[in-house]
Amino acid sequence: MNVGAATFGREPLNIFTEVALASHNSLALQARAHAFVSVTSNDQLVAALAWARARNMPVVPLGEGSNIVFSGDINALVVRQETRGIEVLETGANRVVLRVAAGENWHALVQWALERGYYGLENLALIPGTVGAAPIQNIGAYGVELHSVLLQVHATLIASDEPLTLDKAACELGYRDSIFKRDLKDKLIITAMDLELSLQPRVVTTYPALASYFQQHPHIDPTPEAAFNAVVSIRRSKLPDPKIEPNAGSFFKNPLVPAKAGSALRKRFPLLPTFPQSDGSVKLSAAWMIEHCGWKGLRRDDLGVHKHHALVLVNYGNSSGKQLLALAEEIALSIYSKFAVHLEIEPAVYGTPT
Ligand code: EPU
Q1: What dihedral angle (degrees, nearest 10) is formed by the CA atoms of 308, 123, 170, 159?
Q2: What's the longest Cα–Cα distance across the chain?
Q3: DSSP labels for 245-283?
Q4: In degrees rounded to 5, what are phi and psi of residue 313?
Q5: Ligand 1 in reach of 230 Cβ (< 6 A)
Q6: CB atoms < 10 A from the CB of 233, how many?
Q7: Which of 252, 285, 312 to mutate to test the pocket of ligand 1 (most atoms within 8 A of CB)?
Q8: pTM higher than 0.90 for the full model?
Q9: CA 84–ligand 1 middle distance (angstroms)
Q10: For position 352, what pLDDT does the model report?
Q11: What is the pLDDT of residues 279-292, one digit of tens each?
């Protein structure tokens, strides 16, 4: 590995070239970054962007790599966000406003907040990845989405280093979706996020798996701590640890279809789980459809569909991103031919297939 060290202003910056990315993505996919830098401050970020701009090189932001597929080598400067810091900006009678740096680990933030009696994040426990990645796909689990606590997102524009703040409405958050996946894709790097949490316990236990956990444990009061513990226990029982079985969580989104199509599907497949949405559409369980098509537990060479959760694709060895995407395509085609429903993949895809 070549090392290009440089000093920019006050901040020393180490830019490495031809860096292996397997340890930087939770699917452990083999790929190389043409250039790679870790940044621990906004000054370093600005310096890294200037370095790339001077070479006309694209920039790819990276957190912990838990929702990314490298489909080939990355002909860009990969910027690993390692900025840290959680600041209490404001405390009111019932609420607290936090500013959290993009490089903080999401689950560590959830624990930190709960320990201090700042409530609202419990259902989002154990979601892998960094704070900076959270708004991109509006992380959500067990009946809560980031949307319910987000105030604003701070970012730096890649083309000009200009700082930018987007309020929640400007982020256009949707189910596993935001403006950062669409119009602002590859245009900025998220540097921090402001969250509003409650000083009063507020517990959401309506999500089926969580509701049945509390039904099965009637002696446990549904406090925020209990909700956190329940989510941790449910997730551990069905979602594989990427350190042992490399994966990126749900590989497909649950498809949204118009109400009419949803009820037509329910007539043909009465057991298909469907979740009516506030906009009148219906969310379908992709996991159920994948399982119904016989994929759950499949193992093909170094790739597999996890035996406890059909939405999780696993790289058991040295699979390439290209092979993984080919399997995903095959799964999506089989779902389409049985249900006439398009499955969209959830992780971001980067890289030039070789
Ligand atoms: N199901 C199956 N087969 C399976 C797994 C699930 O039929 O192999 C059925 C379940 O029986 C249930 C329904 O599918 O009726 C929903 O299952 P689950 O509660 O596990 O949720 P999910 O829709 O499969 C989504 C998120 C998860 C999140 C859970 C809990 C997406 C794409 N995935 O999964 O997020 O943890 O809900 O809220 O929306 C992730 O994004 O990486 C992720 C894990």
Answers
A1: -60
A2: 65
A3: S-EEEESBPPPEE-HHHHHHHHHH-TTS-EEE-TTS-EE
A4: -95, 140
A5: no
A6: 13
A7: 285
A8: yes
A9: 31
A10: 80
A11: 999 999 999 999 99
CA pair distance 176, 129, nearest whole angstrom: 15
pLDDT at 50: 96
pLDDT of residue 1: 43
Report residue 266 as tokens.
């329910």
First to last CA, the chain: 20
The predicted model gives 216-242 an average pLDDT of: 97
Q: How many other C-beta atoms lie within 10 A of the C-beta of residue 287?
A: 21
Structure tokens at 195: 């969250």
Type of residue at 150? L
CA angle 64-65-71, nearest 5°?
165
For the chain, percent of residues with pLDDT exceeding 90: 95
| Cα–Cα distance for residue pair 261/124, rounded to 1 Å | 30
Pair of tokens at residue 54:
């001077």
Query: pLDDT digit string (tens) for 280-335?
Result: 999 999 999 999 999 999 999 999 999 999 999 999 999 999 999 999 999 999 99
The residues, any chain, with a CB within 8 Å of residue 350's CB and separated by 6 or more, are 60, 68, 69, 70, 71, 74, 76
Annotated catalytic residues are 176, 250, 346
Q: Crossing angle for the helix pair 224-238 and 106-115, nearest 10 degrees?
A: 150
Q: Where are the beta strands (DSSP E) in 58-162?
A: 59-62, 68-70, 74-81, 86-91, 95-101, 140-141, 144-145, 150-157
Q: Name the residue with tokens 């290009």.
A: 4
Query: Considering only CA atoms, which residue is closest to atom 27 of ligand 1?
Result: 141
Q: Are 247 and 27 in contact (CB under 8 A)?
A: yes
